[in-house]
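User: Predict Baseplate upper protein immunoglobulin like domain-containing protein's structure from this.
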Amino acid sequence: MRESESKSISVLTRGIRIRVPTTLTVGSTANVTYLEYPLGIVPIGTEPTGFFGGGNRQTLPVKVVSVSNGISTIEITNKFSNFPDNQLMQKLDDGSFGTFNGVKAIYFKN
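Assistant:
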């Protein structure tokens, strides 16, 4: 029997990426807001108890990883995984951006 030196490999996987239809500076950082059951997603009164106006609010750090043709790609830089990858945000009436998946939403204000 032989003993050998143990080795380990660390792999850094990328976070969820979201596309924003505005030009941002590559390498800059910001925050997005994640909400479940925000206003307007389901009829008032049908959301779970305690979720009126949105619940499970999380502020998530993001980094701008690329810009192409006026669309910036931002990447969530923590271990958040409650949203599909590569969603395109829409510009909202208040000038912010949002993307939606069922009862979940992510908002970005530039």
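The chain has a mean pLDDT of 88.
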